[in-house]
TrEMBL record:
This is SHS2 domain-containing protein. It comes from Candidatus Fimimonas merdipullorum. Residues 6-187 form the SHS2 domain. One of its GO terms (biological process) is cell division. It comes from the Bacteria. Gene3D superfamilies: 3.30.420.40.
Amino acid sequence: MKNSFITILDFGSSKITCMAASKVAGREDFLIRAVGQSSYNGFDENSWYEPDKLAEAVTDAISQVERKTETTVRELYVGVPGAFCATATGEASLTFHSKKKIDSDDVKELVEKAKIYDNVSDYLALEGKPVYFILDGVLKNYDPVGSVASKITALVSFSFIKNTFRNSVSPILLDKGIKKVTYVNACDAEAQFVAQSCGCIDYCIVVDVGHITTNVMLCGGKSLLFSRSFALGSGYLASDLCQVEGCSYGVAMSALSKVNFSLEFKEGDCYNVNGTALDARRTNEILKARIAQIADYIVKSFQYCDKEIPYNTPIVLTGGGLTYLRGGAHLLSEYLGKNVRVYESVNPQTNRNEYVSCYGVIREAINQNSVKNGFFSFFRK
């Protein structure tokens, strides 16, 4: 691994982040060596809001890391945001004449056999990732190599990235001198990172509320089962305050850091933000209405999911949109009628909620780097 670390690029809904990181020997942890970040206006499901400024933002984030590490980035792992991705699953089985020890070739054959979406218009297909395996029709297994069975069935997850994303990002990276690019489904990477960090072995729902985009993810076993994105986040909360209270957008965003849904306010109580007084009761009610809408959209997202989700599936909240609002996660939990836990990490290297997507892409990049020539490798440009 050149320079002893990997470099990733992550596209948030308000910032592009580049990170250089290295794996800690003998452990699952990694060390973040440098961070570069640039602001931009984000995207929707079809395009960039300011495509003419994308190149500058991407180049600036990468250049910051190059200056801090005193190196030149030649290889990059790019996390593709949920709005530019699609996920589908396929199932395949192998039956043997007698019981045999399962090997990696069997797993590779199952992944290939489950591939039912070879040519998808406007999308680039990434390689499949096994979610779980069923041995002899009864035993669920996540790593079957070495197990003995006469029949093995695999559920395989396939990710697809929109050509519009790749066609807009690849030329920018090529102009920067980066010819070796690996595209990763950021939702898959984030969901797996969160599930592993929280000790979720089976199903896990991850909700990443960002600045103007929310990603809802369902993972099971070792890959993504379902994801959906919609345009709502902390930027919408701030916009609501601007419209109702008549304050500036900057004041509204700053107010979010002072809001507390856990306190009871009486008439006349205010949040004082940069010399501007906002009625505390009214402010909370304005924000509660928008959070209720986010909860409603989360529920509606699963109308598009064809997977059976166990009732006790944990829900983990990430992203910088709601996790830093005092009482925000509890309020979302009330609206969903389900317990919602906020992603936490005792490791100071991975304890920032707004960077959880980055952490996921880093973990995926490290995993891919260690098995670069194996069947878990993704499409490489």
